[in-house]
Amino acid sequence: MSVCHESTRTYNPFGIFCNFVCAASQRHICKNSIQHKDDRTKPRKVLIVDDDAVLRMVLKKYFTTMGHSVVGEAGNGYEAIDLVERYKPDFVTMDIRMPQMNGLDATRRIKELYPDTTITIVSSELDSDTVMEAFISGAKFAVDKTNISGIDTIKDLMNSI
Predict the structure, then answer these.
(1) Residue 28: what are its φ and ψ, rounded to 5°?
(2) Is residue 142 packed enough to be buried (19+ CB in 10 Å), middle (13-18) or exposed (0-12)?
(3) What average pLDDT does the structure give for the chain?
């Protein structure tokens, strides 16, 4: 496991602070340790799920700036499931705490229906138990909302899938 040398608020289930966490390897991925094959990723269909319209707008700008297509935005888990069924995105950002259906329940359902969809939990409430629950639900990554302050974190996520 690489050691992250940046001071961020996202961490892996083992309590090590990092930019984001990979569920498949149970290792954190620091933007200083990612091996970039190419800084240009192939365009992907993205769905943004968060009850905060401002964060959805910021994420949409980041993804479209990188050449990805934002196929939809949802404010709760039910809307997310509907939009995944309709547009079959490659990549979903998913908040945890939302009205009507939370992000962990929506993640479980989406992964049951579309197991190849990459889901990244984007939340401000990521303690080690929540991160582990996100991975068990089927999320591949977990990112703290406070770390979505620059395009590099999103670019690193897209390069790693």
Answers:
(1) -85, 155
(2) buried
(3) 77
Beta strands in 114-157 (DSSP E): 118-123, 141-144
Give, as one character, the DSSP assignment of residue 42.
P
Domain boundaries, the chain: 24-31+43-160
Q: How far is CA 33 from CA 8, 14, 18, 122, 156, in A?
A: 15, 18, 10, 21, 10
Percent of the chain with pLDDT over 90: 48
Q: What is the pLDDT of residue 98?
A: 95
Claim: this prediction has a pTM higher than 0.70:
yes
Q: What is the CATH topology of the domain spanning 24-31+43-160?
A: Rossmann fold (3.40.50)
